[in-house]
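Researcher: Structure prediction, please.
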Amino acid sequence: MNIKDKSLEELEVLAQDIRDRIIDVVSRKGGHFSSTLGAVELTIGMHKVFDAYSDPFIFDVSHQCYPHKLLTERWDEFETVRQFGGLSGFTKPNESDADYFVAGHSSTSISLAVGAAKAIKLKKEDRVPVVMIGDGSLSAGMVYEALNELGDIKLPVVIILNDNEMSIAKPIGAISKHLSKLLAGKTYQGFKGRVDSFIKNNMPEGTTYIAKRMEEAMKLITPGILFEEMGIDYIGPIDGHHIDEVIDTLQLAKDMKKPVIVHARTIKGKGYAIAEGQHERWHGVGPFNVKDGVFIKKASPKAATAVFADALCDLACKHENIVGVTAAMPSGTGINKLMEKFPTRFWDVAIAEQHAVTSMAAMAKEGFKPFITIYSTFLQRGFDQIIHDVCLLDLPVVFAIDRAGIVGNDGETHQGAFDISYLRFIPNMIVFAPRDDKTLIDGLSFAYTLTSPSAIRYPRGAFTPVDFPFTPFELGKAQVLKEGKSSKLFIAYGAAVGRACETAKLHKDDIAIVDLRFVKPLDAECLKDLASKYDEWYVFSDSQKQGGVGSAILEFLNDENISNVKLVSFEYKDDFIDHGDTKVVEESLGLLPFQLVEKIK
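Model: Predicted structure follows.
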C-alpha cells in the first residue's frame, strides 16, 4: 500500500481502519493485541517517511508488526494470521520482501541495524535501517552492546523507542520536547559543529572545558542523556499517536544521517478502551467478545504451568531457602503467584535470561535453592551461563523449563524443541521430565534434594492423562509401565508418555511401555534388561531428533555393544517447525497416534 501521497486526514482514517481490522481478526483468531494496537501511528509514520522495500524495517520481537503487515499487501491474507499455513504472527522474510528479518525473541533489532548499516555503507547505497523497539526490550544487555558500537561508528540508523510502559527518564514537558528537537535539528547541529571547531582551533583549553560543561548541562534537562552519552542523538519524547508529529520527527531523524533515537510515548491497546493501559492479559490473547472484552474460553484441564506454580508454592512454604526467578514472563510461567506470596524470594528480572541464570548461580553458592523458570525457547539465550556459571561449579540450580515441545501459534521462534539437545551434553547436568501432574509435583520435590544442576521440562497446556500407578522419582531410574508380549517396546519421555500410551491402545500388538524419566543419567540396568526382551524400540519425545532422547539411547547401545536392537525415533525432524494449532502442527509432522500406528506397521 503506497501511502506517500496521502494527506494527514487520510492517514488518520487509515489508522482507524488498521485498528478495526486488527480488532476484528484477533478477537476471532487470537494473537498479539495491545502492543500492536499501540504501534499503529508509528508504523504509518515509518511507511510515510521511509521505504519498507528498500530501507530495512526491523521490528524488535516483532509482535507489534501487524500494522506493517496490513500496509504491505497482506490486508486480506491477515485473516490467516498465526493459523497453520497462514501468516506468521512475527515478521518473516519469505512472506514479504518488506519483512527484513525473522524476529520472535527480543533485543536483537539494534544489532541487526548496525550490521545492515555497515553493509549499506560498504555497498555505497542510500538506505537507512529503521528500528522499532519497545522499552521492555531495553532490559536486555544485547541492546547496549549494539548501542555502544553504533555510538562509536556513527552510521545512519533511526531507532524508534516505543515507550508504552514507562519513561526512560521522567519527561519535563513541552520545553524538554522542543529543546530535544532543537538540539537535533540542522540549525543547531550546524551551529554546534562550527562552534566546536572554532573553540578547538582558536581557544585555550580552559574555554573548551567550559563549553563542554555547558553542553552537558543542556543535555541534563532532556530525558535522552543516557543515549547522548553513548554518542547517539536523541529526540523526544513525542506523542506516538499524533501522526503529523511522528512524520515530522522521523523525517528530521532521517535527514540527520547519523544514529538517532526517537523516543515516542504510546498507549498499549490504543483504540480499544478495555485493553488500554498496562494489562498484561491483553498482550497476547485468545478469541474474545469485542463488545465487552470477555474471553471465549473452552473447558480444559489444568495446565502444567498452573500445576507447577502451585507445587512450587507449596514447596517454598516448607523450605525457606527456595528462591526463584523468571525473565519477563511472571504470569506465563506461574511465578507471579510466588512473587506475590514471597516478594523477597522470587523475582522477575525482565528480558535478561543471562543475568537470571548467573545471579541464581551466586545464590546457589550462598546456600539457597534456586528455581529458574523460563520457557524452553528463551532459555537458549542463557546457554553460556548455564555452562560457565552453573554447571562448571556443579551448583544445585533447578531449571524449570516451561513450554517444552510444540507451543502452537507462535511458531518457529518459540517451539520448545532444543532444550534436551543443548542440555544433556553439559557435564554435571541432570535432565529429567514428568509424564503427568503427579510426577511433576513429585519431580519438583525430587529436584529440591539434588546437589547438582538439574533441568525438568513440561509442556504448554495440560498433560495427556496416563493411567499407570505413580512411583516417586529416583535418580537415573526409569519406570516400566507395562510389559508386552510382542517384540516392540515404546520408550517415552516426559509429556510424550501420553502419546505413547494412546498409540499403544490403537495398535493390535501387546506392546511394552517405559517411562524413561531421565535422559541423563540413563537407567543403564533397565535398558540392558529391556534389550534382552525386545528388539524393536520406538522413541516418543517432544523434542528435536538430533541430540535428543533417541540419540542418547543409541549412544548407550553403542557403548554397551548391544547390536540386536532396531531403534526408531518419533522426535522432531531436522527443521524449524511452523506455526499453527498444536494438534494441526503435530498432524503435519505425522505425530498423532493414528499416524504413528501406521508408521510402526
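Model: The longest helix spans residues 8-29.
Researcher: Thanks, that helps.
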